[in-house]
Amino acid sequence: MKSLMIQGTSSGAGKSTLVTALCRIFANKGFSVAPFKSQNMSNFSYKGKGFEISRAQVIQAMGARCEITPDLNPIMLKPLGNYQSHVYLHGKKFKKMHATEYYQKFARTDGLKIAVKSLKKLQQNHDLVILEGAGSPAEINLAKFDIANMKMAEKANSPVLLITDIDRGGSFASIIGTLALLDKKYQKLVQGFVINKFRGDTNLLKPGFRKIKEKTKKSVFGVIPMSDFDLPEEDSLNVKAKNIAWNKKNLDKIDQEIDKLSKLVYSNLNMRKIERMIK
After folding, report:
1. pLDDT digit string (tens) for 80-110?
2. Best label site of 15, 84, 136, 204, fewest CB within 10 Å?
3. Residue 26 host element (H or E)
4. Buried b vs exposed e over 82-106: b needs ≥16 C-beta within 10 Å?
5. Domain that residue 249 falls in
């Protein structure tokens, strides 16, 4: 019952992409792998036989070569505007909720129970579950309602890697600041960091790595270069939602892109260290 969780310093840091790559890497090593995201807010969904979940977890399942089930994304929120969302539970439309109702009355009660039930089922049926967080674990205004980041890592007894998008700037501050804002018990779960979307010579980053190690006592596990892969968008943060046809042609194309992505990530992360971390 092994697990690994990928969290980010912000939305769009590369969590979904890294989970997809790691799912393929460990599947290629012979593990039975499944992705998991307890709660996903997205208008980009996948409709299976009698259920609907975020398509990000479907792409990750393709990476893992595992069955696509509602347990991969037990709670999906489809935003409607004005702080309202359609809430889907285990792939079925449940009800429309205002953000206040969802966070204060549902998330840490029924929502958490639903998410943990799906997580435990995946852990029982697979060698490895790779969890994805949402947004940032350091959103302190939402921390007591959060069921997608450190609370889920705690439930999974999972080590955490924190990924940051260096192309946006401020990554070193984001790493150190994110860690500093976490409770001490959650700081201990974070094993290291991944720098994403870097352009240039990684030697230029080494002074920053030394400072991070000095400040946090934790290491950078690798630097993923800026690359362009033709994979469906994870959510509607920066793009207009568009549907894709789940036909053989598109599935083959996605699979090929996942292969290329996994090779890039494998060659730029300290995989031995990651493997030791999840044993």
Report:
1. 999 999 999 999 999 999 999 999 999 999 9
2. 204
3. helix 15-28
4. eeebebbbbbeeeeebeeeebbeeb
5. 2-278
Q: Which two tokens stand for residue 108?
A: 């840490």
Provide the CA 47 distance to its chain's centre, in angstroms: 20
- DSSP class per residue in 162-214: EEEEGGGS-HHHHHHHHHHHS-HHHHTTEEEEEEEEE-S-GGGGHHHHHHHHH
Residues in the chain: 279
**SS3 of 194, please?**
strand
Supply the CATH number for residue 22's domain. Answer: 3.40.50.300
How many Cβ atoms are within 10 Å of 227's Cβ, its own excluded?
Answer: 13
**202-259, pLDDT tens digit by residue?**
999 999 999 999 999 999 999 999 998 888 876 655 556 567 888 899 999 999 999 9
For 111, the token pair is: 């929502």
- Among 35, 36, 53, residue whose Cα is nearest residue 44: 53
One-letter amino acid for residue 162 of the chain: L
- Sole residue written with tokens 């509607």: 236
Q: How far apart are CA 116 and CA 251, in angstroms?
A: 30
Give the chain's domain count. Answer: 1
Q: Which residues pair with residue 196 across a beta bridge?
A: 165, 224
pTM confidence score: 0.95
Strand, coil or helix: what is 170?
A: coil
